Amino acid sequence: MQAYNHPLTHYMQHKTAIVVGAGIAGLATARSLAERGYQVTVFERSQKAVGASIRNFGMIWPIGQPAGRLYETALRSKSIWKKVCTDAGLWFEEKGSLHLAYNDLEWQVINDFAAANNTIRPVAVLNAAQSLAKSGAVNPENLKGALFSSDEMIVEARDVIEKLPAYLHTRYGIQFHFSKAITAIDHPYVFSGNERYEADKIFVCSGADFETLYPELFTTSDFTKCKLQMMRLDASSSQERIGPSLCGGLSLIHYKSFQEAASLSQLKDFYHSTMHEYLERGIHVMVSQNAQGELTVGDSHEYALTHDPFDRQHIYQLILDYLHQFALLKNRPVLQTWNGIYTKMLNGNNEYIHQPEPGVIIFNGLGGSGMTMSFGLAEEVVDRFG
User: What are the percentages of helix, strand and coil residues in the chain, rounded to 5?
Assistant: First the structure.
């Protein structure tokens, strides 16, 4: 690999690193390494990243992370996202989030959460009128109010993941090899078929493909895979903005942060008795908006090591039915539907960081929080192992 001759480091001896995977975890790791003086090369098996990193809401979502280290890491990620998007000329929108309440139990959970977090996070409980003033897309029927958080930010995942490699190459001299699968690792080498590449450090950030490189480790490390179904709705003719990202009450039982609300168990019991199929399919419904006014809506969560490749139209209908209970978006046709697969830890851990041999670090298992957490976690991983 040829050294990148930055004017200030022309005469310095570079440390070298290889990153396997050009999804968000790989891109974040490559950036953190370059910031610390590494000459970085990234290998991606596809012509461009097409996995979970582009099949999501584009939400940077600190509200979903429990107070403490994980919340602070999410905020660190967000600050890096803002800097990177600004430097690269990529669209982002920082409008926060609204968790909407339509019954007394949802309203109680929101109030409990706000009371426990109002000195930690920028959150506020809004009454019905205040909630409607925040977003014209909120359904007013039976609305109790909402939890507003100003932390949350949206990017267009498909756009940023495709364009960040060019930015990282220009900004840091990071080299990218697309359509080149890494088939074996034996530090200090990685192999792509008969080709061999060498580096001081090797970081494996290949998402669900990690199973291919380390099948025994994958099998023994409490991994499962989550299949989600999502959709995109067309922009309205008026190009109206919905403001904050919107969430129905089911999101209150999905994210770990809300577990500190004392009334959450009662809400779970209520959903089990009234919305059993939604819980069985792991459905909670959120909506974000991109720069073109299109809406990303989802999602479901099914857990297994092997998933069938086919989407279920019934799941999409369940998602839309619930969406229309809290959002006035009925006149937008469905543009696209898709599914995604990501790895998740069964032991409750929020990430998987492992050193299978000296000089090789696996950074994986972020569950559905890759967009929110990768930049911040990559800083921690590189500080620890770089």
Answer: 35, 25, 35
Q: Identify the residue whose tokens are 């369940």.
A: 318
Mapped to the 3 state alphabet, what secondary structure does 302-328 carry?
EEECCCCCCCCHHHHHHHHHHHHHHEC
Structure tokens at 309: 């490749």
Q: Which residue has the tokens 């979903």?
A: 64
The reply to whether 1-96+156-222+350-386 and 97-150+223-345 are identical in fold is no
Lookup result for tokens 């809406």: 295
What would the two tokens of residue 353 be?
């960081």
Domain range summary for the chain, segments of one domain joined by +: 1-96+156-222+350-386, 97-150+223-345
Residue 12: pLDDT band with limits 50, 70, 90 = low
Find out if CATH 3.50.50.60 is the number for domain 1-96+156-222+350-386. Answer: yes
Q: Where does residue 330 rank: exposed (0-12), middle (13-18), buried (19+ CB within 10 A)?
A: exposed
70-84, 208-222, 304-318: which has the minimum mean pLDDT?
208-222
The CA distance from 83 to 15, in Å, is 25
CA distance 146 to 109: 10
Are 283 and 299 in contact, with CB atoms under 8 Å apart?
A: yes
Task: Give pLDDT tens digits for 66-113.
Answer: 999 999 999 999 999 999 999 999 999 999 999 999 999 999 999 999
The topology under which CATH files domain 97-150+223-345 is: D-Amino Acid Oxidase; Chain A, domain 2 (3.30.9)
pTM of the prediction? 0.94
Q: Is 48 helix (H, G, I), strand (E, B) or coil?
A: coil
